[in-house]
Design goal:
- The protein has about 160 residues and is mainly alpha-helical.
- Helix content is about 75%, strand content about 5%.
- The protein has helices at about 5-20, 20-35, 40-70, 75-125, 130-135; strands spanning about 135-140, 150.
- It has a two-stranded antiparallel ribbon.
- The chain is rod-shaped.
- The protein starts with a helix and ends in a 6-residue tail after the last strand.
- The relative contact order is 0.15.
């Protein structure tokens, strides 16, 4: 397999895909939005934030009460630890959601870059372009019978 054969195979695949590019780009836009939507997470974070504030207020109230009212310190400690555990659970859940949001936002950026590269492919694919190849292709498989298969950054195989 020569470099020239590989370049020609890449251009043939790009030209073949370019015929359906408008449809592909529109589909990708909707898929990106669906896969990276964080609306439900935002709502859940708001709910968890309210829960955390409520638990924190109860902790503050418990501490204040302990300051002014004589009470069994073992009971106070158990109540405080239970509230602290609840608060920590809510905070952990909030952090997990924030991490997932960040991951989805990162995926959104990567997918949009890939989408932009595909859009540019139509314009630049008249001749082989190293930058375009690098931006789009994740893996090339050359079979014993001479066939070439491309795996693109978005997971598409041709």
């Amino acid at each position: 397999m020569t470099e020239r054969q590989l370049e020609n195979a890449f251009l043939a695949v790009i030209h073949e895909m370019a015929e359906d590019m408008d449809t592909i780009l529109a589909e990708y836009q909707s898929i990106i939005l669906e896969l990276t939507d964080t609306t439900a997470m935002d709502k859940q974070l708001g709910t968890l934030s309210l829960q955390a504030r409520g638990i924190n207020a109860r902790i503050q109230e418990l501490i204040s009460q302990n300051t002014w009212v004589v009470q069994d310190q073992d009971v106070f400690a158990r109540e405080y630890q239970a509230l602290e555990a609840q608060y920590n659970d809510v905070e952990r859940e909030m952090q997990n959601l924030k991490d997932e949001q960040q991951a989805r936002n990162g995926r959104r950026s990567a997918l949009k870059r890939s989408l932009k590269a595909w859009g540019n492919a139509q314009k630049r694919a008249l001749a082989f372009d190293d930058d375009l190849f690098t931006a789009l292709v994740d893996q090339v498989t050359v079979f014993a019978d001479g066939r070439i298969a491309f795996t693109f950054m978005d997971g598409t195989k041709r």
